[in-house]
Amino acid sequence: MNMYLQPEYEVVRKEEKCTHCRLCEKQCANEVHSFDPKTGRMVADDAKCVNCHRCVCVCPTHALKIVKSDDVYKLNANWKMQTMNEVYKQADSGGVLLSSMGNPNPQISFWDKMLLNASQVTNPPIDPLREPMETQVYLGKRTVEIQRDENGKLKDTLFPQLKCKVPVMFSAMSYGSISYNAHESLARAAEELGTYYNTGEGGLHKDFYKYGKNTIVQVASGRFGVFKDYLENAAAIEIKMGQGAKPGIGGHLPGSKISSDVAETRMIPEGVDAISPAPHHDIYSIEDLRQLVFSLKEATSYKKPIIVKIAAVHNVAAIASGVARSGADIIAIDGYCGGTGAAPTRIRDNVGIPIELALAAVDQRLREEGIRDEISIVASGSIRSSADVVKAVALGADACYIGTAALLAMGCHLCRACQQGKCNWGIATQRPELVKRLDPNTAYKRLVNLVVAWEHEIQEMMGGMGINSIEALRGNRLMLRGIGLSDTELKVLGIRYAGE
Amino acid sequence: MLQREGQFRNPSGCAVAGVIDRSGQNMSGEAIIEAISVMHERSNGLGGGFAGYGIYPHYKEFYAFHMFYDSISAQEEAEKFIKRHFEIVYYSEIQTRKLPSIQNEPLIYRYFLAPLPQKLANSHLDEREYVARCVNRINAQIEGAYVFSCGKNMGIFKGVGYPEDIGRFYRLEEYEGYAWTSHGRYPTNTPGWWGGAHPFGLLDFSVVHNGEISSYDANRRYIEMFGYKCTLQTDTEVICYIIDYLVRKKGLTLDETSHIIAASFWDTIAEKEEKAREQETLLRRMFPSLLITGPFSIILGYTGGLMALNDRLKLRSMICAEKGSRAYISSEESAIRKIEPDPDRVWSPVGGEPVVFELYDGEGVRNK
Q: What's the pLDDT at A217?
């Protein structure tokens, strides 16, 4: 124990409501709760609590709540409590600080500073309850040569595309970082929704090959689990160059989460940390990327679109231009607020740029260069609601990836302790007794519900704008106005100020 | 100060009308003026215009440029440019009639032009592309000069005023053509600039449009990748460029073009017979960003024909009629009845389904 660190949260138990059923004790993998036979009361060790809210949710008498501790250091605007605690931790351990999920610090959310349009008088809003309202998109290249057969019929000269019934896909979360049941839930939801889930860099469990039509497989710098069947089974292949939560470094999976099943799927030893290399060691430059893109296309007979996922960094527009010319079909751009199962805190909180600005810059650059049809854009890294999706599409995205929102739908409470592998919700853990808490039958349905609900909301917002196909919203920046933004921010976003 | 057309997005409501004699028989501009005048209430006096096809039979080999000039100096500069790129076969001021209702007209000139052969050869461009680029440069770079019509054997006449007054101002009763379209404008701003009136034309394409498209910026940002510059920020301009791109540059038919810009819903496509399903799916997958949403009814004029097209929900009125070799298109049936009280057939085209009327002999017809 580090004597300098005080609990951040306190477990508050209403004694008059507590029946000593000890369910909280059984449910807490962090061993916060225990029964004190001497006093006949339940006690809690606040220091162990990660505030995942599992006990609060399961308590049959609603006797529990978790509150932020009001214990404070002498107030200091420059040296905040969090900052001081991190120094204490590092002085104690000598280690790199590790965090999970997206950057929790106060950020400018540009989504919240963009407002949508609606039709009034001069053209009619369209009612999605009474009229068709299309959310289906095809992702991939749209560069075409018009060719006709002898009867004058147009030939299909398009490269393979991904058909999404909604412009929302589940982003890369590996088996290992999340559980078998979480993966099954995502796969089944993607199948029912007509969209895709993404294996992340952890390989594909053999049980899930049957969801191949809705599966995007990842090829990352560690090449975990990559082999012929894996590639052939997928609807698309994603080359992971970077991730918004940790640009410039590879994936981290602590050994504690590498069970025998995870090890087999990843093709690595059990219980050993899986730290992917920072770069792909066969990609030191853009021409190398092109070679990997075409190697994967060759390996799969040019039948599958290739996605290149990059973290949003400073010169993202130029990088995207290179990627668009690399033969890749889709570029996924991950913003700096994106989630992760484990990342060095300093990198997560300080490296990269917001997805809104990156997306706007990339879409504009590709259009200026006349190569927007070469590649579809998928935006991710803190897409929190259907409104964020609509704004992303209006800025220029073809579709969005959601990760955190999907985990929340399955029960995650964003306690940000994934790297510890003790997820009480059965999501970010490999412990069988915890994994079984997540029932795929329920979780998959909740994922479906979430995306269906978002789809309805997307349709409502589109209808208000008088747009009845998501394709007519893509890059339609006149539908956005900024509020509380500087001239520079408006310029980068390519939108006007409200009232203009 | 109010901004000029092109400096802001200017949506407007409108009236459109068109007539074609498919046997190629000529009609004076009188009938189309009469037709559009019935729909006076659909305009607000801030824009009216006409396009006539087959009106310059003696100069049909030459590009007829109609120009607005704000000043003599703009004219001089534009003419210098024109002379550098074209042989001027004939030019004169366009004859107009002074009317109290038409004020502040610019200088209005007409030129019949042939591209300079050496210049054209050096450009490595197709002749029509050469002309289109020259027009683009005049409009974008020479302040106070504006090319508002540049096709062969056709002409656009437009200005600020009610359309019937604009028609009389240009003395259209003195012109004879096999097809005419017209437009009365109800803009929601008051630019008062003649170049902002409609039809909008590029080469022999002319577009009149009623509606306000919700896909505007998606369409604009896409089409601008291919060398077009939407300087007027109007729906009509972007629609005209889209049609030019798909038909002239990509070689698609008008029917295929319609299935891109007013595509059937995916659900509808799924129910079609196999060939149509395949082709329409393919077109939507190839050009999704050229889908136009929101209300529109357009009449496209081109050498040898007229095409009427409504948005896929049919959010704007549009009626077609036939009488013998004559075919009519209008926002309101009243305009057709005014000039043809007893049509053989009157119908309201389904949203998204193009109606094409072309000369019977097919002379000069680009697409079937």
A: 98
Let me know whether A186 and A82 are in one domain: no
Q: Is A146 on the interface with B (CB under 8 A)?
A: yes
In a domain, residue A159? The reply is yes
A46 and A194 co-located in one domain: no
Catalytic residue among B14, B134, B230, B240: B14
* Tokens 């004790």 sit on residue: A25
Domain shared by A260 and A380, yes or no: yes
How many residues in chain A?
500
Residue A1 domain flag: no
Query: For residue A479, how many other CB atoms are within 10 A of its CB?
Result: 30
- For residue B284, which residues of chain A lie inside 8 Å, CB to CB? 471
Query: Does A194 contact B at CB distance below 8 Å?
Result: no
Domain that holds residue B201: 12-210+296-358
Whether the CA torsion A481, A485, A491, A494 is positive or negative: it is negative
Å between B214 CA and nearest CA of chain A:
6
Residue pair A362/A317 in contact (Cβ under 8 Å)? The answer is yes
Span B103-123, mean pLDDT?
Answer: 96
CB-based contacts of A332, cutoff 8 Å, min separation 6? A171, A238, A307, A308, A309, A310, A377, A378, A379, A380, A401
The CATH number linked to B133 is 3.60.20.10
List CB contacts (< 8 A) between A495 and chain B.
none
pLDDT per 10-residue tile (average), chain A, 500 residues: 88 96 97 96 96 97 96 94 94 94 91 96 91 97 93 94 98 96 98 98 96 97 95 97 95 91 94 92 94 97 98 97 97 96 94 97 98 98 97 98 98 95 96 97 98 98 97 98 97 96
pTM for this entry? 0.94
Q: A156–B252: do the CB atoms touch at under 8 Å?
A: no
What is the reported pLDDT for B10?
A: 61
Tell me whether residue A218 is in a domain.
Answer: yes
Residues A83 and A181 in one domain: no
pLDDT for residue B367 = 40
Number of folded domains in chain A?
Answer: 2
Which of A471, A479, A493, A497 is the mutation pick for testing B, counting most B CBs within 10 A?
A471
Q: Is A372 on the interface with B (CB under 8 A)?
A: yes
Annotation says B14 is catalytic: yes
C-alpha angle with apex A476: A121 to A462, nearest 5 degrees?
A: 55
What does the radius of gyration of chain A's CA atoms come to, in whole angstroms? Answer: 24
Domain containing A21 equals 9-95
We report the CATH number of the domain holding residue A348 as: 3.20.20.70
- CATH number of the domain that A42 lies in? 3.30.70.20
Residue B4 lies in a domain: no
